[in-house]
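JOB MANIFEST
job_type = single_chain_structure
chain_count = 1
residues = 274
[input]
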Amino acid sequence: MVGLVLAEPERPDELIRCILADDDELVRMRASDALEKIGCTRPVLLQPHVSLLSGDMSRIDQPSLQWHVAQILSQVRLTPRQRSQAVRLLTENLPESTHWIVLNCSLETLAVLARQDPAVVDTLLGQLRRHDDSSFKSLANRARKLRSEFGPEIPTGAPLFRFLITLTVGAASFCALGFAITAMIPNADAAAPIVNATILPLLFLSGVFIPIGDNAPAWITWTARIFPVKHFADGIQAGFLGTTFHWSDVLIVGVWGLGALLFALRFFRWEPRT
């Protein structure tokens, strides 16, 4: 379908008529998905239909259509008036929708519009503060990432205190863990492989390198909760950004540090074993 429309530029009209005239949600979803793919390849073909995107199409209560409309609005060129309409639509989606894809796409498109027009930044920051504690992990991660881009703030007061406490406990605990794992390393040649095999999987499973989304397998979530890396990362991030802070994160990191210290006191030796 996409190839056919790209070959015959008048065909987007037919897709839009399918969306507006057909009550079948599957037809609407496929038509809007085709429009989004066309927008990725040749957004100029959708340019004449911008008013419909932020008008009649946006008023259809169907999540799969709403997230495609949000994506398309980030692809086409908008006039100042059209951008204002798009911002209004997206800020309506964010508090009203309960679908995580709609929320993610709306927030990302709002960020695209903020990069184009600094006047949108304040609106975006308000939405980011509202969603950086979302129960949807992917949405919370996206909001925090965008906050670091658009509105990084140096923590003060209570957030600064929590940040410093987490940093201090984390630094001490990971130092203790370093001494503890050293007790299991037989010689210098084995140090790098053992350390990398230990820490790298934990960094990935804890969402440090790549944020863990809402659809992640349960075993990844539970593994991350057992070990201290995720709790330290969450505590540091919450302390710095001023989001919801959980003292349990600091407690878990501290417990790991205490356990590592006791283990190191019992087994650590300055001399290699072999």
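[summary]
Residues 157-182 form the longest helix (26 residues).
The mean pLDDT is 83.
exit_status = 0
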